[in-house]
Amino acid sequence: MAGKPRLLKELVAFWRSIVFLLTPVVLCPLPIVFASTEYSKIANCGYAVIIMAVYWTTEVLPMAVTALLPIILFPMLGIRSSKQVCINYLKDMNFLFVGGLLLAVAIERWNLHKRIALRVLLTVGSQPRWLMLGMMSATAFLSMWICNTATTAMMVPIAQAILVELLREMGLEDPEKKILPPGKSIDGQVLPTCMSAQARSCPLAPQAGKDKPEEMRMEEGDHDFVEEDAQEYQVQASGKVAERGDKMAKGLLLCVCTAANIGGIATLTGAHPNILITQAVDTLFPDSPGIDFASWFFFGFPAMVLSLILAWGLLTCMFLDCRCLLGCVRGRCKGRCKRNQDSAVHRVIRKQYGQLGPLSFAEKVVLFHFILLVLLWFFRDMKFIHLANKRAAGWTYFFMKDYMTDASTSILVAIFLFFWPSQPPNFMCCRRRGDTRPAKPAPPILDWPTVHQKMPWSVLLLLGGGFAVADGVKASGMSAWMGQGFRAFGDLPVVAVVLIMCLIVAFVTEFTSNTSAAAIFLPILGNLAEGMCIHPYRLMVPATIACSFGFMLPVASPPNAIVFSYSRIKAFDMAKSGFMLNLICILVLTFAINTYGIPLYHLDQFPSWATCAADAVTQGSSALPTILTTLPANVTGP
What we know:
Number of strands: 2
Distance between the termini: 58 Å
Oligomer: single chain
Radius of gyration: 29 Å
Structural class: mainly alpha
Largest sheet: 2 strands, antiparallel
Mean pLDDT: 78
Low-confidence stretches: 173-235, 334-339, 615-638
Helix content: 55-70%
Number of helices: 30
């Protein structure tokens, strides 16, 4: 009997190898059964996609390595040639992301992101509810432009320092132990703790010169009974304070990962699925105007702001006090969450901000290039202003039509970062008075060793794998087949279809990467929209954003995993708040696409660049071969 537990332990120890080897074997019947039928290509694509989904979910291989599997599987299974697959890994959208990442590296290198975050926290004040709003606002804004993982990794230590002071003010013992992982401390120092109720900083300690409460006054012979009652009262009060402090710590940490996930939906470069939809639209609908930075921002930013405000209200009610939130709005908070500028929390934030020093020349240069890139993205192609020759207004008007894209713009600005000096020049007329230093070039804002070290190169392979999967799903006819399988949704109102699709996508992305979820679902939803004769953007845009709503599980997103690594957060806490956050954000998304999204993307009419296939899609499953042969070329591919 002793051999069985040992065997089980060995199997568990090598579970990754077992999953890696058994997954293709277990799924082998899928391509074999349909090998001689008209569904062989669909079955082969399904075989490859399921293998990648399992590998992405279990991470038996690094996610970027799994993204390379289409280069092997698609040619072997007869889905796409190697040349057709490999070209997906260096698309125009990949370089849009490269330019955004290079700017993000420059922002991180010169600590501009930390200055922005601390400045926001100083502005909102040190009351817990406003600290939470400040943390969420700063995190969401930074996640719009830089990687949400890097944003979370920077904001969590700031939240640590704030929590230490908040819990210390509440008189909790050893606050650092309660919020930091084992073996960690802030600045390598052991922080003082409140060890007893007699400590002056503890709220339970009686203050000198003040009378005891009325119920604590003793008469002769009652000393023993009153002392026991007082001790029991102090234990109960201490337990309530500890519980309130624990909830506050959970809320302040969870708000960071929540805002990091929400913030990325506002910009085209803020999240991987946002990049994928641009390529999916170009592949499925070559004649469409496409989605650029400005058109995405005008939809995503309001949705992000509304989701962020509602998420802040929910987390405040769950982890602080709803009465305090409502009372403060009405001016009746009664001091339950009052913190002034003389509090320890405000001093900690002020100290960290002061350590950054004045705004440096390098930070000014990075800020200038950041603002310049955003302006160039917005005013590249203003489709709402048409000139006499039917071209849209914008600075690209002076170049060949459709030659300069958002990718060209981001690379243009990024290249200047490798040239621009990080210090003021000190030669000829640029030399300051009294500067006797020898003239020599200053280091540039960016150099290649820094980029090589900080650049997340794996993201490019992950995006390329997503593009390749989307291309294979479309080329094999799998997207058209699955779109036909969803024909039952054709009888539902469009609002209900959008809501159901967003719920499905949000649920799937809890267990797998948002990139893989978007790569699989977007071609399917594009064909489903054509089958229902509704604008493809009406399903594809909200589904893309729903891929970023992974709030429930630690494995749903890197920000969740970072926050969960701190012993304060439990899986149940994240699941409980994440479930409500998913519902709120999906309702916001459904509201947005069915209100201001309609005039923004002209969703009230079916576009001429798509093909209405409602009659073909609603025939039934037996008509699938006819569907696949009669759909237009821009749907089924080669």
